[in-house]
Design brief:
This protein is of the alpha/beta class and about 250 residues long. It contains nine helices and nine strands. The protein has one domain: TIM Barrel (Alpha-Beta Barrel), CATH 3.20.20. Strands 1, 2, 3, 4, 5, 6, 7, 8 and 9 form a nine-stranded mixed β-sheet that branches. Helix 4 links the parallel strand 4 and strand 5. The protein is globular, with a radius of gyration of 17 Å.
Length: about 250
């Protein structure tokens, strides 16, 4: 499966944790705003709570983005949902850490969602299987891309998907590898690597792979990404990036 959005020019615009420029990251408000701005696809982060619920937050602790403290894996869903995820912004004080199911319910069914596996909990067959089961139950298996800095996490979830006949595409993010990694559908090299190796995208395309640089503030480098032929760009500010690409909502 490839990331293809018929009728939409490349590079596609992937909102990074929602429209972070306008709303607190990884909140329903941020994703609603990104959708309103015209983002092509959604990126969010996935953790598992102590009582086995999948929630969308970047850090392994709630300290930075909520008014609480503690590790996600040590907290129940009830405890997590009692916190404000407004990042101290009064206008968003009622925002909560969303569940993965809430993301599925918010995002249109024909839109790709990229789920970054943030924890080694997904190396355990049970959490990996639960993620796959929830993706399938939501009817999202044809529009999901699994992301991670860890190939082992990706393989673990893929193995569980294979047991029920699903093939979930994967995206590997890298801060240091200047050559495309084989066996991956979507590659996310840290953006300086594309200057270090200008043939990276060409090489990936020769292998049938796609590329989306790890660059949440891409606008000054869009000219280069377009010249290279990048398939998608990540952004904290979908509206500004769409505008810079000559696309208006």
């Amino acid at each position: 499966m490839k990331l293809e959005i018929p009728g939409t020019p490349k590079p596609y615009v992937m909102c990074h944790r929602g429209s972070v420029a306008r709303c607190p990251e990884n909140t329903l408000a941020a994703f609603r705003q990104a959708l309103a701005e015209g983002t092509d696809l959604i990126e969010t982060d996935v953790h598992m709570t102590a009582d086995g619920h999948l929630v969308c937050i970047h850090d392994d602790k709630v300290d930075r983005t909520t008014d609480g403290t503690g590790a996600i894996r040590d907290m129940s869903l009830h405890q997590i949902r009692s916190l404000s995820a407004g990042c101290g912004r009064a206008a968003f004080e009622h925002e909560m850490i969303p569940t993965l199911q809430e993301i599925f319910e918010l995002v249109p069914g024909n839109m790709f969602i990229c789920l970054e596996l943030k924890t080694d909990d997904f190396l355990d067959p049970a959490p990996a299987r639960q993620l796959v089961t929830q993706i399938q139950a939501a009817g999202r298996h044809e529009r999901i891309i699994l992301l991670s800095f860890s190939s082992r996490r990706l393989q673990s979830v893929q193995q569980q998907a294979a047991t029920i006949g699903l093939a979930l595409p994967t995206g590997l993010i890298s801060l240091t590898r200047a050559l495309p990694t084989s066996g991956i559908n979507l590659l996310g090299p840290f953006w300086p690597l594309l200057f270090l190796n200008p043939l990276y995208v060409w090489w990936a395309h020769r292998r049938g792979q796609q590329v989306c640089p790890l660059d949440p503030s891409p606008n000054r480098r869009l000219w280069y990404y377009r010249w290279l032929g990048c398939d998608a760009v990540l952004t904290d500010n979908p509206a500004a990036t769409l505008h810079a690409l000559g696309r208006t909502n």
